[in-house]
Design a protein that fits this description.
Elements: E1 3-9, E2 21-27, E3 33-38, H1 40-43, E4 54-57, E5 63-66, E6 70-74, E7 80-85, E8 90-95, E9 101-107, E10 110-117, E11 122-128, E12 139-141, E13 148-152, E14 156-161, E15 166-172, E16 183-188, E17 194-198
Antiparallel strand pairs: 1-2, 2-3, 4-5, 5-6, 6-7, 8-9, 9-10, 10-11, 12-13, 13-14, 14-15, 16-17
Length: about 210
């Protein structure tokens, strides 16, 4: 499939250098640009949060972008379909195994995972577990079966079963000599193997 990304231009925007211009870009695997869409109109609706922090692509090529408070759902041409908001702040966003898009955010003093229902154009299911509150944020991991999702925090990587609402510890970072702050990407292959991309920007420069 094609690659979807958000391009940031700090030299454009409002000219102050503080509010960048965001452009949704779709590219072929050879780098050919298929589509570009200016997203300034979305952020104009939320002047107090003029930055985009998250991007995820769900089923039927639905593109979700968020400024931390609002999630805009766009079609594959970049046109806005609907939006949903949280009362707190989005801590993370990712694509679930059934093709839905989910965010992590606080509901009261508890961290929760909320899915977006594309058909109802509203929030869908909400998942909560005490393990989620062991850290201030959780990050989603691609992979697994349709009735489960992987996530990790600063302590470990976990598997959440959405049918039983139970959480299983998959890997403890400390026990496996993994520094979670350096993790850039984590995924689970079809054979169950965990793949991680870790970077270390020390005195010798960046490395993996």
């Amino acid at each position: 499939g094609n690659i979807v990304a958000v391009k940031t231009d700090w030299s454009a925007g409002d000219g102050s250098g503080s509010n960048p211009l965001y452009t949704l870009v779709e590219l072929k695997s050879d780098g050919t640009v298929v589509m570009e869409k200016d997203l300034s109109g979305l952020l104009a609706q939320s002047a107090d949060l003029p930055y985009l922090y998250y991007l995820a692509v769900g089923k039927d090529d639905a593109v979700c972008v968020s400024n931390g408070n609002t999630v805009w759902v766009l079609d594959k041409e970049g046109n806005s379909l609907f939006q949903v908001s949280v009362d707190s702040f989005v801590q993370g966003m990712g694509t679930m195994n059934d093709g839905s898009v989910a965010v992590s955010c606080y509901e009261g003093d508890k961290l929760a995972v909320k899915t977006i229902d594309f058909e109802k154009k509203d929030w869908g299911k909400t998942y909560k577990n005490e393990i989620m509150n062991e850290s201030t944020e959780i990050k989603f991991v691609k992979g697994g079966k349709e009735n489960e999702f992987y996530f990790y925090n600063s302590s470990a990587m976990y598997l959440y079963n959405t049918e039983t609402d139970t959480v299983e510890t998959v890997m403890n970072w400390l026990a496996n000599d993994v520094l979670s702050d350096n993790l850039s990407l984590v995924s689970v292959a079809d054979d169950g193997k965990i793949r991680m991309l870790s970077s270390d920007s020390g005195e010798s420069g960046a490395g993996c």
